[in-house]
Amino acid sequence: MESGRRNEPPMKGAPLRPFRDVFKTLGPGLITGAADDDPSGIGTYSQTGAQLGYGASWTMLLTFPLMAAIQEISARVGRVTGHGIAGNVCRHYPASLLNGIVSLLFIANTINVAADLGAMADASRLLFGGPAFAYVLLFGITSVVAQIFLDYARYVAVLKWLTLSLFAYVAALAVAHVSWGEAVAGLLIPRVEFSAPFLTTIVAILGTTISPYLFFWQASQEAEDQRVDARKRPLIQRHHGAQKEFHRIRADTIVGMAFSSLIAIAIILTAAATFHATGKTDIQTSAQAAEALRPIAGRFAEVIFALGIVGTGLLAIPVLAGSAAYAVGEGRRWPVGLARKPKEAAAFYAVLALSAAIGIVLNFTPIDPIQALYWSAVINGVLAVPVMVLLMLVARHHEIMGNFRVGGPLYWLGWLATAIMAFGVVAMAIAWAL
Fold first, then answer.
1. What pTM, to 2 d.p., does this model score?
2. Angle 92-97-102 from CA coordinates, rounded to 5°
3. CATH of 27-224+242-273+283-433, one of 1.20.120.80, 1.20.1740.10, 3.40.50.10490, 3.40.220.10
4. Which of 20, 59, 145, 323 is deepest in the core (most CB within 10 A)?
5. Model confidence over 370-412: pLDDT tens digits?
6. DSSP secondary-structure letter at 127?
7. Distance between CA 237 and CA 9 in Å, rounded?
């Protein structure tokens, strides 16, 4: 006799279950990839599309495998050792080297926090009106309070759901009048110009997509997950299930970086179809891009573009301030981690709050946010090279990684990413000199 359940209608919401199950398995890689498209990054991609048109989108296909490789290596280091990048470097390399890198990271991240808060405030003012300073305070304080006082699992879930805000740029692309023939050609056929503006833009894209704070964040989050989950231990201590963990890390990282690259392509194409096509090439910030969309693509495009800036800013600021706190705390061997109570990791949370607080204050000074962001990108671009070299050395260090040293195509792809970043810094220096 057949059970009557066979004829029952499917449960409400059942089609969403596969999506929810997959979404739950994603973690540090997805959040890291989405945080890469922060408001300052949106400004860079908008400027790229406005200045170079469709012919610049191929750069995202170039950077995707490079950023995926370096982020996977970062995640592996965290999962194998139970420490982030700074935690490993402080145990095996000179303290002076680590102190210089961490100091530059803190400065660059703090300037980036300030720029992102300013962009979020400008976008909110477009949407709702009111004074910009109120939004700077609101977003800055909310971010710090959430990181310090929210339960870790709940906070990570909030960050994961915030990644969906980036789909606003897919919606913006849908209402733009894109010349798809030119868009596909620009994506698949590299166009290179040996000029200072072009080389500077390429370096800006490299610095925006392959940023040191992302390396520190993903490695530290993999280590953090082991402290939260009692079933997990660093793989160097407990070898069982290593391959399953490496497969999870690869899938998580590829999905996160692919998501980041697709959103960046959508922003570049939207800017190319609206600004470049109409001769408007002076876009400098993400908020300017949102405002300039209204007369070209309508109020709807402006609103969803601005909402995306706020959403991704709420995601990126915790990653920026948090990665600085992880780097400083691990380098000093303090108790670190968002899963710890404030009294258990007071110095870690103090660094996090300090980075955000300085970022808030910078918005009330005469400092030009565009110039500050420019120099932040310069610091990130220069800093990325030694950090990536150190990361590649750590990944092959037998005492650190044991039998889980990174090798094969992933290892060489990591060195290729490092070489391209170094070439970008040299090209930028030559462009300045000329």
1. 0.89
2. 105
3. 1.20.1740.10
4. 323
5. 667 667 767 777 888 999 999 999 999 999 999 999 999 999 9
6. H
7. 49
